[in-house]
Amino acid sequence: MKTKQKPERFIDEEGKRVDGRRPDEIRPIHIESGVLNRADGSCYIELGDNKIMTAVYGPREVHPRHLAEPDRAIVRYKYNMASFSVSERKRPGPGRRDREISKVSKEALESAIFLEKYPNSVIDVFVEIIESAAGTRATSLTAASVACADAGIPMRDLIASCASGKVDDTIVLDVNEVEDNYGQADLPIAIMPKTEEITLLQMDGNLTRNEFEKAIKLAKKGCHQLYEKQKQALKNKYGGN
Ligand code: ADP
């Protein structure tokens, strides 16, 4: 979507959204793992117009040392938007939003990693948003978990993350930028797909209880679609079908 204006309607008479998707459709997904040579693990992801690179270093020794935990690894998660990634230049450096996203994403990812296997060490996760088109926190997390797997870090499962939302009183999967900016609600979740355990849940806007349940169900459906692509990206690098 190039227009940043609020559309008159979000859903047309054929039931299609401003970018031509049906309410229950996710944007096109492209995932590649192991794309950086220097990092221990990496993943590049596109979801619609979102373009995101993630790199994982570690487990490795913690600096500064006082941050080390004697019984487990710590995770540092750094979400960064390139200044050219949004329509108006983003001021470089972490703002409140970047810090919040880094915090909730770190916690979401930690749930999947067997941290106790690596006492006194750190897993550093770097996220660079190259082009941003709504849903970046969820999409980054999806990529970051593939990068962790690519680094050989033992995990309970991958983390798949996707948002649903509400526009024109309709629950839709994977809100785009216009829907995010002018819609009625945005609900990003992250799950471990094997058990559907939720490791991140945030919400902007208002939903009734019924709408909330429908939105969670739809976001989970998106997560399972991402999960298939995540596994395929790892298989493409390491072989197997
Ligand atoms: P998410 O990217 O996880 O959906 P938000 O809901 O906070 O996070 O943001 C929605 C979208 O708004 C972003 O993906 C991005 O396209 C746009 N956006 C966020 N921050 C900025 C900014 N500082 N300048 C311009 N656009 C922004």
TrEMBL record:
<dbReference type="InterPro" id="IPR015847">
    <property type="entry name" value="ExoRNase_PH_dom2"/>
</dbReference>
<comment type="similarity">
    <text>Belongs to the RNase PH family. Rrp41 subfamily.</text>
</comment>
<comment type="subunit">
    <text>Component of the archaeal exosome complex. Forms a hexameric ring-like arrangement composed of 3 Rrp41-Rrp42 heterodimers. The hexameric ring associates with a trimer of Rrp4 and/or Csl4 subunits.</text>
</comment>
<comment type="function">
    <text>Catalytic component of the exosome, which is a complex involved in RNA degradation. Has 3'-&gt;5' exoribonuclease activity. Can also synthesize heteromeric RNA-tails.</text>
</comment>
<feature type="domain" description="Exoribonuclease phosphorolytic">
    <location>
        <begin position="25"/>
        <end position="154"/>
    </location>
</feature>
<dbReference type="GO" id="GO:0000175">
    <property type="term" value="F:3'-5'-RNA exonuclease activity"/>
</dbReference>
<dbReference type="InterPro" id="IPR027408">
    <property type="entry name" value="PNPase/RNase_PH_dom_sf"/>
</dbReference>
<dbReference type="Pfam" id="PF03725">
    <property type="entry name" value="RNase_PH_C"/>
</dbReference>
<dbReference type="GO" id="GO:0000177">
    <property type="term" value="C:cytoplasmic exosome (RNase complex)"/>
</dbReference>
<keyword id="KW-0269">Exonuclease</keyword>
<dbReference type="InterPro" id="IPR036345">
    <property type="entry name" value="ExoRNase_PH_dom2_sf"/>
</dbReference>
<dbReference type="InterPro" id="IPR001247">
    <property type="entry name" value="ExoRNase_PH_dom1"/>
</dbReference>
<comment type="function">
    <text>Catalytic component of the exosome, which is a complex involved in RNA degradation. Has 3'-&gt;5' exoribonuclease activity. Can also synthesize heteropolymeric RNA-tails.</text>
</comment>
<dbReference type="InterPro" id="IPR020568">
    <property type="entry name" value="Ribosomal_Su5_D2-typ_SF"/>
</dbReference>
<dbReference type="InterPro" id="IPR050080">
    <property type="entry name" value="RNase_PH"/>
</dbReference>
<dbReference type="GO" id="GO:0016075">
    <property type="term" value="P:rRNA catabolic process"/>
</dbReference>
<dbReference type="Pfam" id="PF01138">
    <property type="entry name" value="RNase_PH"/>
</dbReference>
<dbReference type="InterPro" id="IPR011807">
    <property type="entry name" value="Rrp41"/>
</dbReference>
<dbReference type="GO" id="GO:0010467">
    <property type="term" value="P:gene expression"/>
</dbReference>
<dbReference type="GO" id="GO:0000956">
    <property type="term" value="P:nuclear-transcribed mRNA catabolic process"/>
</dbReference>
<keyword id="KW-0378">Hydrolase</keyword>
<keyword id="KW-0963">Cytoplasm</keyword>
<protein>
    <recommendedName>
        <fullName>Exosome complex component Rrp41</fullName>
        <ecNumber>3.1.13.-</ecNumber>
    </recommendedName>
</protein>
<keyword id="KW-0271">Exosome</keyword>
<feature type="domain" description="Exoribonuclease phosphorolytic">
    <location>
        <begin position="157"/>
        <end position="222"/>
    </location>
</feature>
<dbReference type="GO" id="GO:0003723">
    <property type="term" value="F:RNA binding"/>
</dbReference>
<keyword id="KW-0540">Nuclease</keyword>
